[in-house]
Amino acid sequence: MRMSELSARTGVAVATIKYYLREELLPAGRLMSATQARYDDAHVERLRLIRALLGPARLSIAQVRRVLDAIDAPEADTLARLAQAQHAASVGAAVDDLGPAEAVLARAGWRFDPESAEVAQLAAALAALAEAGYEIPEENFTAYLDAAAVIAETEIAHIPTESAEAAIRYSVLGTVLVEPVLLALRRVAQQDAAYRRFDPDGSR
Amino acid sequence: MRMSELSARTGVAVATIKYYLREELLPAGRLMSATQARYDDAHVERLRLIRALLGPARLSIAQVRRVLDAIDAPEADTLARLAQAQHAASVGAAVDDLGPAEAVLARAGWRFDPESAEVAQLAAALAALAEAGYEIPEENFTAYLDAAAVIAETEIAHIPTESAEAAIRYSVLGTVLVEPVLLALRRVAQQDAAYRRFDPDGSR
Questions:
Q1: How far is residue B8's CA from residue B2's CA, in Å, rounded to a whole number?
Q2: In chain A, which residue's Cα lies nearest the Cα of B157?
Q3: What are the Cα distances from residue A96, in Å, to A121, A151, B8, B157?
């Protein structure tokens, strides 16, 4: 298809498509002449992924490029691709002391990459708790670890296997876009639990 | 104690304490003369709560005021106080259509306030998924609902009961500060699950 049709099918303006081509987020089309190129369904898919990553998932152009590099890495296996894509979508956190995070993770018995952005995020989150003088009750912490393990196990079990693009789309968008869903579900579930504890007969 | 001692005990500068007094976040001390007031342990506690809410929890001055109003509301019962404090700490989201969120919550069987900021947050999060064309696999969604229910149940069961201040400190700081912990735990648990699925013999 021509660029005009690619634009019509995806709803992305031609000028924006040209920008993605210049930024090498979108692979070049097949050249038909010096000024004409043709695009195919792979371009449609890639364009939709770029839009989702830049729009709802709010990644930067640089992060999107790293996610796409993970898809296109010629020799990487699934684990390496996923790790690369996930790290690209993670926000770096500068932390002095990984000790508390590593203690939590040792208790959970998980395998993890101690140099990953995810572990640094956990350390930063624990440091903010400590700064606020807030201690998570022991049973709550156990519930968090158990919930995270069940969620992650289910998510990884459902990674699509038909292509690297599908796998990374699922895991990067799933990680980033599901986060606000999880947080909102917890807050509404707290409403339910508070009603049941403080208004068990449903008088309100 | 004098303001200088209140400052020394909490590490908050005198100018900052005066600002909180002017903003009526901190109740006035007991006046000893026209220019001298005395403060007590309740001021120390309140000051620590203000610092935690403004610092690690990143609430605005206006949000902190609403949280403190919930603590000080003379006639409110625990449920009303908690709801007021939680709403104060929630980020409002403008959404057109609560339908998808209400469908999810009906499925979960939870009691909830359809006009609350939490339900609007859920609707906004689901709208972002739809915009990205991302569908959560059914079993994953079930895992999210179950995890949220278990977490909320455990958290509400551990609300301290000795004072409204303690209850609200626990629930507001817990809600806000635990969110990044939960998200980081999920991301690290995904590492563990990915290792187990794609590298079961631990060769890396």
A1: 10
A2: A197
A3: 12, 29, 26, 34
Over residues B140-157, mean pLDDT: 96
- The tens digit of pLDDT for each residue in A112-166 reads 999 888 999 999 999 999 888 899 999 999 999 999 999 999 999 999 988 888 8
Whether A204 is in a domain gets the answer no
Question: Could you tell me which residues come within 8 angstroms of residue B107 by beta carbon, excluding any fewer than 6 positions away?
Answer: B145
The reply to whether A163 and A121 lie within a common domain is: yes
Residue with tokens 């201040």: B165
Same domain, B47 and B144: no
Using the beta-carbon criterion (under 8 Å), do A191 and B113 form an inter-chain contact? yes
Task: Check residue A184 and give its pLDDT.
Answer: 94
Range of the domain at A111: 55-198
Residue A52 has its nearest CB partner, among B77, B104, B133, at B133
Say what the pLDDT of residue B85 is: 86
Q: What is the pLDDT of residue B92?
A: 66
The pair of structure tokens assigned to B109 is: 């069987």
| pLDDT of A91 strictly over 80 | no
pLDDT, tens digit (0-9, with 9 covering 90-100), for A24-73: 999 999 999 888 899 999 999 999 999 999 988 888 999 999 899 888 88
B132/A82 touch (CB, cutoff 8 Å), yes or no: no
Question: Do A163 and A84 lie in a common domain?
Answer: yes
Is residue A11 less than 8 Å (CB to CB) from chain B? Answer: no
User: Hey, which residues 27-46 in chain A have their CB within 8 Å of chain B?
Assistant: none
CATH number at B43 reads 1.10.1660.10
Please give the angle made by the CA atoms of A86, A92 and A96, to the nearest 5 degrees.
130
pLDDT band at A92 (very low <50, low <70, confident <90, very high): low
Question: What is the tally of structural domains in chain A?
Answer: 2
B131 and B68 fall within a common domain: yes
Q: Which residue of A has its CA nearest to B131?
A: A56
Contacts of B154 in chain A (CB under 8 A): 139-140, 143
Contact A139, A107 (CB under 8 A): no
- Same domain for B83 and B153: yes
B100 and B49 within one domain? no
Q: Does residue A203 belong to any structural domain of this protein? A: no
Q: Report the amino acid identity of residue B31.
A: L
Same domain, yes or no, for B60 and B8? no
